[in-house]
Amino acid sequence: MSLDLHADPVDLTAALVDVFSVSGSEAELATLVQEALEKQAPHLEVVRNGDAVLARTNLGRASRVVLAGHLDTVPENGNFPSRRDAEFLHGLGSVDMKGGDAVFLHLAATLPEPKHDVTFVFYDNEEVEAVKNGLGRIERELPEWLAGDLAIVGEPSNGVIEAGCQGTMRVELRFSGKRAHTARAWMGENAIHALAEPLRRLAEYEPRIVDIDGLTYREGLQATAVSGGVAGNVVPDAAVLTVNHRFAPDRDPAAAERHLREVFDGFELSVVDLSPAALPGLSAPAAAELVAAAGGRAAAKLGWTDVARFAALGMPAVNFGPGDPTLAHTQQENVRIAEIRQVADVLRKFLA
User: Are 328 and 84 in contact (CB under 8 A)?
Assistant: First the structure.
């Protein structure tokens, strides 16, 4: 099998979907991508890093744009291989994010002299724990390949530029009590009952709505788990409340943690997971050009994506890809055919 990078991006999307690449099994697809780029895009420098493939122009342009997409998918769920009808292409990874990959690969082969130098990054293990993410390995081993003036991550965004992203922080509040038989409950201290006050604060919490670069980011603070209890006749002596905070890009992790400690003042709190936010950076010249090519439309990214990794390297980053993100990871995953072509047209206008 081989990939035709000059084909219609819709056909190329179908070809990518039909190569099984669940996280940890990207080797076959990475090899096909590498071979296709080496044979069909001779104007690019191509390297392999694990099961990631990187390619770039070296034209001496004044600016560089990084186009990044992951090759892996979540596990198959009766939606492999692809199928299509008049309006949609269905199949595992069609939304998340082989439609975006197909657009990038098509542009890699058909734009030999873009007005910006371009780096293409097709990486592995995005859908699993962050420590395995191929971008992290590339940053450690080939950091110069991630440098640029703008990063575009091809995650599904309904064909709309989604700039920056929220940060996410997960914290645990731990409560101690004293065990006793429930028949003599007054002799104990119920740790679960101690959750009442922090839960009240959560119920009354009013999240911020923040405007950055003309984009609206909505913060959130939600209890996501409660654990505790010993047996049906024992007053529990321990309980844990898990809370997730989604914070706007104007807060750094330290500011987000300070805010949570203010909200839960008086309670023991520990941070157990953290991913920083990314500022949209739409005022940067390359980002402004991209927004103009997309008709002036941009929206705030309300979740967390790998744009934050690029933002941490000091460059503005956006999500821009075909597909409805609410269909990602579902059995019904499908992408609108016209949207694949629309995203390709916008990026061609931006880069050509």
Answer: no
Cα separation, 9 vs 121, in Å, equals: 17
Backbone angles phi, psi at 71, to 5 degrees: -90, -20
> Do the Cβ atoms of 163 and 300 come closer than 8 Å?
yes
Amino acid at 143: P
* Distance of alpha carbon 325 from alpha carbon 104, whole angstroms: 18
- How crowded is residue 110: how many other Cβ atoms within 10 Å of its Cβ? 15
Question: Taken in order 5, 8, 10, 14, is the CA torsion positive or negative?
Answer: negative
**DSSP 3-state of 177:** coil
Cis check: omega of the bond before 285, within 30 degrees of 0: no
What tokens does 147 get?
């440098």
With a CB cutoff of 8 Å and minimum separation 6, the contacts of 186 are: 180
Asked whether the beta carbons of 76 and 329 are under 8 A apart, the reply is no
Best CA proximity match to 49, nearest among 73, 66, 65, 33: 33
Q: Is the pLDDT of residue 76 over 90?
A: yes
For 228, the enclosing helix (H) or strand (E) is: strand 220-228
Active site residues: 72, 126
Q: Is the pLDDT of residue 303 over 90?
A: no
Q: Which two tokens stand for residue 333?
A: 């995953």
Look at residues 267, 193, 184 and name the one whose alpha carbon lies nearest to residue 237: 193
Confidence of residue 304 (pLDDT cuts 50, 70, 90): confident
H helical segments located in the chain: 9-17, 27-40, 99-110, 134-141, 196-204, 253-263, 285-293, 307-311, 337-351
What confidence score (pLDDT) does residue 253 get?
95
Q: Quick one: average pLDDT of 90-95?
A: 98
| Predicted TM-score (pTM) of this structure | 0.88
